[in-house]
Structures are given as C-alpha cells and as structure tokens.
Design goal:
Elements: H1 3-18, E1 30-32, E2 40-42, E3 52-56, E4 61-66, E5 69-74, E6 81-86, H2 91-99, E7 112-119, E8 122-127, E9 134-139, E10 144-145, E11 150-151, E12 165-169, E13 172-178, E14 186-190, E15 193-194, E16 206-213, E17 226-234, E18 245-253, E19 271-275, E20 288-295, E21 304-310, E22 318-325, H3 326-335, E23 339-343, E24 349-353, H4 369-373, H5 384-392, E25 409-412, E26 416-425, E27 431-439, E28 443-450, E29 453-461, E30 471-474, E31 481-485, E32 490-494, H6 504-509, E33 515-518, E34 523-526, E35 558-563, E36 567-570, E37 580-585, E38 588-589, E39 596-599, E40 602-605, E41 614-624, E42 627-641, E43 653-658, E44 661-666, H7 669-672, E45 693-695, E46 713-715, H8 721-753, H9 759-771, H10 779-789, H11 801-806, H12 828-839, H13 856-861
Parallel strand pairs: 1-29, 35-42, 36-44
Antiparallel strand pairs: 2-32, 3-4, 4-5, 5-6, 7-8, 8-9, 9-10, 9-11, 12-13, 13-14, 14-15, 16-17, 17-18, 18-19, 20-21, 21-22, 22-25, 23-24, 26-27, 27-28, 28-29, 30-31, 31-32, 33-34, 36-40, 37-38, 37-41, 39-40, 41-42, 43-44, 45-46
Helix pairs in contact: 1-8
The protein binds 2-acetamido-2-deoxy-beta-D-glucopyranose (NAG) (2 copies).
C-alpha cells in the first residue's frame, strides 16, 4: 500500500458519505406502540432464542426452533401449543466445547438453526449442538426425534453467532454456512457437492437467504430448476486500502452433479454477480445485504426479489430496500461477461473483464436442450475446458441493477434486518407489493412504493422490549399473518389493522392496499378475496375527496369547567404522523403568544380568564399528492369559572402541579390509546417567542372537506420535519466540509512538501478543490476507470504479463498471502499458474484435520 492511497481514499470516502441525500426519507404515517394493537405471542418458560420458523400451511402448523427445543403451534393462534420436543447437549459435550474456549452458558448449547419439511411425515432439523453441528429427523405425528444424528458440518453453523442459510429442495438440503470450528472456511453445500475453498468463489461470505426457482417446467430452453443464494462478501474486484464489502446473488442448478475430473464433487454451475442498491443521484452505496425475499410468480421470468441493504460505513444508519428482476439475473448468468484475475506487478492481483472467447458449452450454465443435443446430458460429461473455465471465473462482470435504478424505500436511523413481501390486488385491480420489514430494534414497517413514491403505512412495535427481528415469515395461503421470531419469543401479526382507521378520510389516507372503506356500516375493513367488495371504497392514490364529511356542527364537545388563573393542556392526537395541526377557538384560528403554546400538537393555555371560555377545535391537515384534507380530531368546550365558585371536576380532568400553578390535562379518553402523548419525540416542534404568521393562500384550490376560514392568519408551528431536519443537516455538513477541506489542504501541502504525490494527481486534486466541485466517488466507476487507464485487454491466455503490467499506476491491494509475495511471471504459462494458485489460495490455517485443500502447492506460496 503506498502512502498516497492511504491519504486520498479515506478522505474521499468521508466526503462522499457526507453527501448522502436525505430527500428521499420517509416518516411512517401511523405508529402502533406495543400493546396498542392486539398481537398473539408464543414463548415457553425457560426457553429463548426463537430464531428458526417453518410454516406448514397443509398442517396449519407453525414450527418453531429455539434454544434446545422445537415446538409445533397452531398457525392461526400461535399461543396454542400443540407439541414440543427438547434436544439438549449432554454435560460431557458441553464441557468439551467449553474446553475449546467457548462459553458454556451461551455458546455450548444447541441452537436450532435449520427446520425444513423433509416429506409428508418428517421434518429435518439441525442444531449447533455445542459446536458440533448435528442434524436429525422429527416424526410429525408423534413429534419425536428419530435419533439419527447426522453430521451437520456445512449444513448448520457451529456457533450461535455465525451466519447461515438453507433451503430444502426435493428432499435435498442446500446450505450456505461455515465449514469448520473457527468459522474461517465457508461453503455452499448439497450432499457431496460444495464450493471450492478459494477466494474467487467465496470470500468471507455472510449468508442471508436462499431459495429455489422452479423454472424447469416452463423454461423454453429446457433449463433446470435453480437455487439462489444471497450474501455479503469481501470484494475482490474493487481495491482500496480497506476491505470493501459487496452484496452478491449466486446460483447453482438443481441437476448439477459435479465434474468428472476437474471440479469433482464441486459445483459446476456456481456463478455469482454483484447486486447494486444505491441512491442514483448521490451515488450513495448500500453495499451490505441483510436479507432477501423472492416473490415467486407462476411464470418464473416475472419473479422479482427484494433485498434490504445497509451501508458498510455504519456511522450513518441508513437502510434501503431494492427490488430486482429475476430475468435480469438469468440474463447476466447465461449471457454476461466473466471477470478474470490477472497479476500486474509482483504482489498485485487485479480483476478485469475477460475479453477472450468463452468455451462451449457455456461455463456455469445448467444443462439445457442445447447441451443435451451436444450429448452433454449431465455435468459429469462436460469437457475439461468448460469446467476449468468456470472454476477460474465464478464472478460475472455485469452487476444486477435494481428495478427503477434505485431503492424502493430509504429509511434513516433504522437498521433493517428482515423482509417479506406480499403481492396484493387492490380494488382497482392493480397489484401492489406490500413490504414488511423488520428492524434490529423490534419494529415492523409496512411499506408500499406507489410509482416511486415511498410510503410507510404503519410502524409497529412487535416486541415489548427492543430486540432484533430475527426471522419473518408470511403465511401465503390465506395471507393473514406475519410471523416474527426473536430472542424472547414469536409474534403473530395480522397483515392489516383496517378497523383501527376510524374515519373514511383516515381509511383512505392510510393508502393500505388491504383496506377499504365500507360506507354502509361506516367502517374500514379488510378487502376480501371473493367478490363481496362491491360497495367498498379504496383509493390508493390517497384521494379522499369521495369521503362524505361528518357534519361538524353536530360533533358535541367534551365539556370542562376550569378555574380562573389555571394552566391547562388540551390534548390532540391525530391518527397520522404526516398531519399538521391547527387549533381554533370558537372557529377562529389560534395564534401562539404568551398565553397559548402548542407543544407536540397539544394546546397549552397558561392563564385562563373569561376570554378563554369557548369551543376549542383541533384540526389535522394532511396533504397527499397536492390535495389537503382536513379532519376534526378533538373538540373541547371550556368554561372558565370565577375562583369563588366551586369547581366541578370532570372525570377526564387530571390535576397536576406545574411550575407552582395547578394545571389540568384534558384528553378525550377514547382517543388517547391511539397515539399516546409520550410518543412524540420524533417531531421537532420549534417554538420561538416571535410567532410566525402567514396567510394560507392556495388552500382554496384543494378539495376542502370542511369549511375553513381561509382569510385567517394562522400560526404554523414548525411541523415540517423534513425542512428543519435538512437545515440541521446542511449546517452540519457545511461545518464538517470546511474542517475536512482544511485537513485535506494541509495533507496535500504536507504530501506535496514531502513529494509523496505525483504531479498529475496533485494537479487534479487542486483543480477539484479550487473549482469547488463536488468530489466524485463511485467505486464502480473508479474501478472501471482504472481498468481503462491501464488499457488492459486480456484475450484468452495469449498475452504476456508485460503488456498487462504497463498501465499499472500503482494502485495496489493489500497483500493476500501471508507475506504478500506472489512471484512475478514472465511467461504466459507461469502467469496462468499463478492465477490458479491465487484463486485457490485457501483460508486461514486450519486445526480441523478433515479439511483438505485441493492444491497443497498453493499453500507453499503463501
Ligand atoms: C453420446 O454419448 C454416448 C455415450 O455417452 C455415445 O454412445 C453416443 O454415440 C454419443 N452420441 C453422439 C451423437 O455423440
Ligand atoms: C439468546 O437470547 C438471549 C435473550 O433471551 C440473548 O441475550 C442472546 O443474545 C441470544 N443469543 C443468540 C445467540 O441469539
């Protein structure tokens, strides 16, 4: 690593991260705190870590894998436990595990990690079993373990904190996880077939998801069913001073049997590509995939998958959801270009696009009609050339870009951990993909993207504490519930809470594809699959103009009699966090002054006199697509009494002491539960002693549900979160940028003085700083530029290393081998040999005796 890279790269990164766009951030419209909506939960006493869930819709059962136990519960009511079986580690095994340096209390236990349907009568289950992963079968009827104790290495992780994924396809388990005690070797495994232990195949992967696409029945070219894996790994194709992570999708074909000489007992169809999820306008990259979900359709080509992503640079907590077309992935794997490793100077391996001719049959492709016609009816018959190629080139050059070129959802200050997606048909007959996304703090977001407009319908606190959502399942058959697993238990969540929307306007403005307004019984209801939806109203564009307004005059106020000189707080709890509040006294808008304050939507009156008697209305205004809808949230009638009179305390009046004065807090009790007073920290209400007045013009053009006195001067408490937030961010950004620029200049001067910087680079930097241009940083492009700069074109194996090395401008990777030296090759053959050696460079030295490296010679190099 040369000094100039060490200086320039981190600076560029910092500047880049600060330029993150905040314009796309969303606020959940409705928030349900824990206990505000009814959820069904399951947990057993003395058992924790409910992280593995399996839904059997045929048996109407949810199977739950926890710490040392497996349960079967009724899927319609998970609190109804049907069966349980305990699977504990013997004391002896536990001690042995503890002797190896693992914690007896937390690690040397049996964490159930794999639970699949094996056949009609049997479940397949694997657990970490005190760092000796073991699998077994459960007879569904008796719900007992069959004590077959199969080896679980490569199927199930060794310890509770290692990442894993698995899918059962036709009684065969496909798994991605660690393969040794230390967790340094990772595999994608099925029976005897696995991945090579080689950096180009898997480079410290964190597996998050896997699933099968059954396309063989409908595939036009007779291709096979495919199993897809999603993971994050350390990039080989981008070179920086530090490890850059990338998200990958990889696949293998179901019919793969390995090669006969080359790639014996290895996948011959393992290919992988990078998944891109980034903000198009700011180039901010979400490079770590946390979870994925494939939304399968009857025609596999229409299938899409959703991924939740975070950024490796976690000083900014931002999460995003991107969706991708499965057909695009297939295109890249079946027709895209391959990446190829090449060594430049003595210690430097670089990945470039392979420009030579690719052998036939195409490496990595599933056996299809074309190959069968050439008499290659299975992978064992494939020619060595094809197999050797796929062994050396598992990485595709093309990346998989998201639908719409950007995220479906971006959210600040949350870390998304899990996602499931439901495709719902609205009453307009359009399909809507409803995303259910779990966070590391126990929240569930329900979100829809309406033609690039991000909308979070609800935020739900599904656990009593703040713990990560570890598993999410969606019941497919009747699509009624989401099941979430966590440390403390399992939660069953209905997909919608339509009945919680009390007014037509609220029901429509929620824009929930599951819900519609029934004008006959005046309720918000779930839309049904049958055709009984005739009279229901649903406008997912949020057009609530069709809602008939309640006759405002007829709303009877809550009456309160209060003492003169008192301080009082009138509560207002709008159903929507997107709404703005206006308070009116006797139909005249109230202005904030020394006597009136609005605090988190509630109205504070400091000194009650006769003049404060009257009808107080709290109006919420919510704007959707340029239309503003008003709703009366609260109405109070205040009667201020002379102090000599006896006070009749209303039951809802709570007397509290405040600043030495007696004060009252008035609430409309039935609405309090909806949005409690204490949950309003999200809002940044600003109070200034000088109040802001403005005439609300432009209101006349919007459909008004209720009469408003438009001419009135209004007080606007600053509820516009986005603007105040971005102001803060802007000033923060400005300060940081100034500091960074100063540091940067000092560094440049220092480096210039020390002559560390080459002339052209220095000129470029000064030019950029001088122009005040925003620095460009896109590692995709940087890397591509580098490749171009170096004018490298490798055509097959025919070109010498000298030509390759000419363009080297000194960008280097960290040394990959122990001492960082891979000898410089003079001849093409040697170059190829070195590439091979590099590519099979194995992971850390292993204690496990049973790990055999394919090429011992590769070791000797490192
Ligand atoms: C196909 O392979 C079989 C044996 O594997 C061989 O007998 C047959 O002649 C081959 N057919 C063609 C068309 O190459
Ligand atoms: C298991 O659950 C406990 C709390 O019940 C939690 O503290 C611990 O981190 C969990 N362990 C794993 C490996 O999930």
């Amino acid at each position: 690593m040369r000094r100039r890279d060490m200086i320039l790269v981190p600076l560029c990164l910092i500047v880049h991260l600060l330029r993150t766009s905040y314009s796309d951030l969303v606020v959940p419209r409705t928030v349900w705190k824990y206990g505000e909506v009814s959820l069904t939960t399951f947990s057993a006493s003395g058992v924790s870590n409910y992280s593995t869930l399996l839904l059997s819709e045929d048996r109407k059962m949810l199977y739950v894998g926890a710490q040392e136990a497996i349960f079967a519960v009724n899927m319609s009511d998970i609190s109804d436990k049907k069966h349980e079986v305990y699977w504990k580690v013997s004391e002896e095994k536990q001690s042995k595990c503890a002797d190896k340096g693992k914690s007896k209390e937390t690690e040397c236990l049996n964490y159930i990690r794999i639970l699949h349907e094996f056949d009609d009568e049997t479940l397949y289950v694997c657990g970490t079993f005190a760092f000796q992963p073991t699998c077994d079968y459960i007879s569904v009827k008796s719900f007992t373990l069959q004590q077959r104790n199969e080896e679980g290495k490569g199927k199930c992780p060794f310890g509770p904190n290692q990442k894993y994924t698995s899918v059962m396809v036709d009684r065969e388990l496909y798994s991605g996880t660690v393969y040794n005690f230390l967790g340094s070797v990772t595999v994608i495994l099925r029976g005897h077939l696995r991945t090579e232990y080689a950096i180009p195949w898997l480079n410290e992967p964190s597996f998050v998801h896997s699933d099968v696409i059954r396309e063989s029945e409908t595939n036009l070219v007779g291709s096979d069913d495919k199993v897809y894996f999603f993971f994050t790994e350390v990039a080989v194709e981008y070179e920086f001073y530090s490890r850059i992570l990338v998200s990958r999708i990889a696949r293998v074909c179901k019919g793969d049997q390995g090669g006969s000489r080359i790639l014996q007992k290895r996948w011959t169809t393992f290919l992988k590509a990078r998944l891109v999820c980034s903000l198009p306008e700011s180039e901010f990259v979400f490079n770590v995939i946390q979870d994925a979900y494939i939304l399968k359709t009857s025609d596999w080509k229409e299938s899409v998958f959703y991924g939740v992503f975070t950024s490796q640079w976690s000083n900014l907590e931002v999460s995003a959801v991107c969706s991708f077309k499965m057909s695009k992935v297939e295109d890249v794997f079946s027709t895209g270009k391959f990446m190829q490793s090449a060594s430049f100077d003595q210690s430097h391996v670089k990945w470039v696009i392979f420009g030579g001719s690719v052998p036939l049959p195409r490496p990595g492709s599933c056996i299809n009609n074309e190959e069968r016609a050439l008499n290659f009816s299975n992978s064992l018959m494939l020619p060595d050339k094809t197999l050797q190629f796929v062994k050396d080139h598992p990485l595709m050059a093309d990346t998989i870009k998201p639908i719409g070129n950007g995220p479906k959802l971006v959210m600040k200050n949350v870390k998304y951990t899990q996602i499931v997606v439901d495709r719902v048909r609205g009453l307009d007959n359009h399909l809507y993909d409803v995303m259910f996304i779990g966070t590391d703090k126990g929240l569930l977001h329900k979100a829809v993207n309406f033609g690039n407009e991000m909308h979070i319908i609800e935020e739900l606190h599904i656990f009593s504490g703040s713990e990560p959502v570890q598993t999410l399942l969606l019941s497919k058959e009747d699509r009624k519930y989401i099941y979430a697993g966590s440390h403390s238990g399992v939660v069953q969540v209905p997909v919608a809470f339509c009945e919680k929307y009390k007014t037509c306007t609220d029901c429509i403005l929620a824009r929930d594809p599951y819900c519609a307004w029934n004008p006959l019984n005046k309720s918000c209801t779930r839309i049904m699959k049958d055709n009984s939806n005739n009279n229901l109203m649903q406008f997912l564009n949020g057009n609530a103009a069709h809602c008939r307004t309640k006759d405002v005059e007829s709303v009877s106020p809550e009456e309160h009699i209060v003492k003169q000189g008192e301080l009082i707080e009138l509560k207002c709890l709008p159903a929507s966090r997107l709404a703005k509040i206006t308070w009116k006294l006797n139909n005249r808008t109230l202005h904030e002054n020394s006597n009136y304050r609005v605090d988190q939507n509630n109205l504070l009156i400091f000194h009650l006199t006769d003049a404060e008697s009257g009808i107080y209305d709290c109006w919420s205004r919510e704007t959707v697509k340029g239309h503003t809808y008003q709703q009366l949230v609260e109405r109070y009638s205040l009667i201020v009494e002379n102090p000599v009179n006896i006070i009749t305390a209303s039951p809802t009046t709570q007397l509290t002491k405040m600043e030495g004065k007696s004060s009252s807090t008035l609430t409309s009790t039935d609405k309090e539960r909806r949005t409690p007073h204490t949950i309003t920290s999200w809002i940044q209400t600003e109070f200034s002693t000088s109040t802001e007045f403005h005439t609300s013009t432009g209101m006349s053009s919007t459909p008004m549900l209720t009469p408003t006195d438009n001419a009135d001067l209004e007080i606007e408490t600053k509820f516009d979160r986005s603007s105040s937030m971005s102001e803060e961010i802007n000033s923060f950004l400005l300060c940081t940028l100034v500091v960074i620029t100063l540091l940067f200049l000092m560094l440049i001067i220092y480096n210039c003085y020390m002559k560390y910087l080459p002339g052209p680079c220095l000129t470029l930097c000064l030019y950029k700083v001088g122009n005040g241009k925003k620095p460009q940083f896109d590692y995709d492009n940087v890397s591509e530029e580098l490749v171009k700069q170096q004018s490298v074109q490798i055509n097959g194996d025919n070109q010498g290393s000298e030509q390759i090395a000419t363009g080297d401008k000194g960008y280097e990777t960290e040394s990959d081998c122990g001492n960082g030296k891979i000898p410089h090759a003079e001849k093409p053959q040697e170059l190829k040999q070195i590439q091979e050696n590099y590519s099979i460079k194995s992971v850390d030295a292993e204690k496990d005796a049973d790990i055999k490296y394919i090429d011992e010679e590769a070791q000797s190099l490192c």
